[in-house]
Backbone:
């Protein structure tokens, strides 16, 4: 049985283009003891993955050339050789970008189906981005009612969740994003009190001073660099 996979064909310079990747057909191995065959349903494309395309030491090892990209995936068990995961079970994990793959059941986490929650949410607010936002804002930031919170990269998966968590705690939340459209989403859909487009705002520090007259209690930094 064969399947398709996406591999890293070359290490990109700057923004990756389609030439950095290659779609290949590969043979699936036989399912061994304690293993399952999984069909991929959702793939998560996260900012940290760009860093893994570089051949340099970081907090996550680089992707190997000519091997499948690894990332967050939600899939359905198609065949099983273990009582732990039966066909039809929905699972997630850090997995290869393949249409189908054989893997040890111990590498997977079962997702409990809930009609009120879309499966894709387990790669977003109920997955790594949501957990990152929760730990950063709640456990490290420790927000309190009435405090002022500023978030860079606020329209991304982590920033948007962090801002909404801060609002739950009763904070005033200011988001920094890279377009007027993103800023509108922050205020109109995510409940931020205000948003700044750093690409058009010439004096960011002054804009923040106007919006945060009593100063900033928590700065949730998603980007680093000049904005920080």
Residues:
């Amino acid at each position: 049985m064969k399947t398709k996979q996406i591999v890293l064909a070359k290490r990109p310079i700057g923004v990756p283009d389609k030439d950095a990747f290659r779609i290949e057909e590969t043979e699936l191995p036989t399912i061994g003891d304690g293993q399952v065959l999984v069909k991929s349903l959702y793939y998560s494309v996260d900012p940290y993955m760009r860093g893994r395309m570089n051949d340099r030491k970081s907090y996550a090892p680089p992707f190997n050339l000519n091997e499948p990209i690894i990332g967050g995936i939600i899939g359905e068990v198609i065949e099983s050789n273990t009582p732990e995961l039966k066909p039809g079970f929905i699972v997630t994990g850090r997995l290869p970008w393949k249409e189908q793959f054989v893997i040890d059941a111990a590498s997977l986490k079962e997702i409990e189906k809930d009609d009120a929650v879309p499966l894709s949410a387990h790669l977003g607010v109920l997955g790594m981005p949501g957990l990152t936002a929760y730990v950063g804002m709640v456990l490290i930031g420790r927000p309190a009612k009435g405090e002022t919170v500023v978030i860079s990269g606020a329209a991304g998966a982590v920033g948007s969740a962090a801002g909404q968590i801060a609002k739950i705690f009763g904070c005033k939340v200011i988001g920094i994003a890279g377009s007027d459209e993103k800023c509108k989403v922050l205020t109109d859909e995510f409940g931020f009190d205000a948003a700044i487009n750093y690409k058009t705002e010439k004096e960011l520090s002054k804009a923040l001073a106007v919006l945060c007259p009593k100063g900033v209690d928590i700065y949730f930094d998603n980007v680093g660099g000049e904005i920080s």
User: Anything to note?
Assistant: The chain has a mean pLDDT of 95. The helical segments are 48-52, 128-141, 157-168, 180-188, 204-211. The longest strand covers residues 70-80. The two ends are 51 Å apart (CA to CA).
